[in-house]
Amino acid sequence: MVTLEQKVLAKNDDLAAANRAWLAERRIRTVNLMSSPGAGKTTLLERTIRDAGDARPVAVVEGDQETRLDAERIRRTGCPVVQVNTGAGCHLDAAMLRTALDRLDPADGCLLFVENVGNLVCPALFDLGEDAKAVIFSVTEGTDKPLKYPYMFAAADLIVVNKLDLLPYVDFDLDACREHVASVNPKAEVVAVSATRGDNLGSWYDWLAIS
How far apart are CA 78 and CA 104, in angstroms? Predict the structure, then answer.
């Protein structure tokens, strides 16, 4: 099983390298968004697309096991989007992204978001050819998520703590959360936001370089 896993990941890495070269040639910055279901990825994306305005064109690849619900939400913003349904699969891989790119044909110089399947385990294992990984989790999920799912948080370039507007109503310690993140990934930046209310979204936009 270990040998098989190594071969699968090695093939994926080769495809990811080809994706990365294709995207770099077109000056497309690609961000892989990962989270558990319900953390607010799609809401954050909707808000980001609307706030980006003319600063930079945006395109989205949506990953889900079934339905086109999230893609329809993104489409209503006017943003180009392609849905990838994985069926029983728990993550997107580099081959899926390659197929999606062919269908989407994102504009040169755009900001491309890949909204991965909701899962705090498998998506971290698969390089897609992205420039950066952002992990989103909400205050409703508990302070200990970085410790319980260390590989996901260790793989991230940015940690977004979402639903800050609910902080007064849940048992969540933001300072302890930052300490937990630092223990598994000292290099990751942590920003706390509310995608619905708009709290601190400037920090998120600064990281994306669209502010």
Answer: 14
Question: What is the SS3 assignment for 185?
Answer: coil
Q: Does residue 41 have a pLDDT over 80?
A: yes
Q: Are strands 81-85 and 158-162 parallel, antiparallel or unpaired?
A: unpaired
> How are beta strands 111-115 and 158-162 bridged, if at all?
unpaired
Q: Could you report the per-residue pLDDT of 178-192, keeping only the tens digit for each?
A: 999 999 999 999 999
Distance CA 54, CA 56 (A): 5
Query: Residue 1: is its pLDDT beyond 70?
Result: no
Query: CA neighbours within 13 Å on the CB side: how many for 3?
Result: 0
Helix, strand, coil shares of the chain, percent, nearest 5, are 45, 20, 35
Q: Residue 88, Cβ neighbours under 10 Å: how many?
A: 6
Q: Give me the percent of the chain exceeding a pLDDT of 70.
A: 96
147 pLDDT higher than 80: yes
Provide the b/e sequence for 11-49 (b: ≥16 CB within 10 Å). ebeebbeebbeebeeeebbbbbbbbbeebbbbbbbbbbb
User: How wide is the angle at C-alpha 121 spanned by C-alphas 7 and 150, nearest 5°?
Assistant: 105
Distances (CA, A) of 96 to 60, 82, 89, 93, 119: 14, 11, 11, 5, 17
The chain-wide mean pLDDT, for the chain, equals 94
